[in-house]
Amino acid sequence: MSNFSGLRTYRGSCHCGAIRFEADLDLSTGTTRCNCTICSKSGWWGFLARPATFRLLMGQDNLVLLGKAHRCKECGLQPFGHGDIPELGGEFYAVNIRCLDDVELSGVPVKYLDGRHDTWAQLAEAAYVNPFGNAGGLA
Predict the structure, then answer these.
(1) Is the pLDDT of residue 42 over 60?
(2) What's the pLDDT at 81?
(3) Where's the CENP-V/GFA domain (predicted)?
(4) What's the number of domains the chain is made of?
């Protein structure tokens, strides 16, 4: 299992690489997965970062608004989102940690939330286990 304790700078991108970012994250504080149809069908796996810890390095012109989400106009992926919700502490960037480059995520704590029924109740919490192990890339 990997150790994610402490603040660390991660780099990430969309699928085609047109959008690139970096963020200072402490993944040991917990990530979230939601069971709503948007998150479950797109594979979204989030971590909230404060604006001072997020930097868009490349691709501002490649971001397009589709529905409520900014996506890459080339590949359609959503590597991060941006919002301002007082209940979540104000302004934030929601980083899709599946879009982090070269990170083995086994051991990252995950809080599973019930967005499908709009309760946002925590259904479970567990450390992520990569089902592919070393056989199929980084998950």
Answers:
(1) yes
(2) 92
(3) 10-121
(4) 1
Q: Which domain holds residue 44?
A: 8-127
Q: How confident is the model at residue 138 (pLDDT cuts 50, 70, 90)?
A: low
Residue 135 pLDDT > 70: no
Q: What is the CATH number of the domain that holds 58?
A: 2.170.150.70
AA identity, residue 69: A
Residue 78 CB contacts under 8 Å (≥ 6 apart), including other chains: 14, 42, 44, 69, 70, 71, 72, 96
For residue 100, the 8-state DSSP code is B
* Cα(12)–Cα(1) distance, integer angstroms: 21
Q: What strands lie across the sheet with 20-25, from one edge to the other?
A: 8-13, 20-25, 54-58
Tell me whether residue 110 is in a domain: yes
Q: Collect all residues with Cβ–Cβ distance below 8 Å to 139 and sequence separation of at least 6.
A: 98, 104, 105, 106, 128, 130, 131, 132
- Which class for 14: exposed (0-12), middle (13-18), buried (19 or more C-beta within 10 A)? buried
Instruction: List the single range of 64-78, 84-98, 104-118 with lowest mean pLDDT.
Output: 64-78
Q: Is residue 86 part of a domain?
A: yes
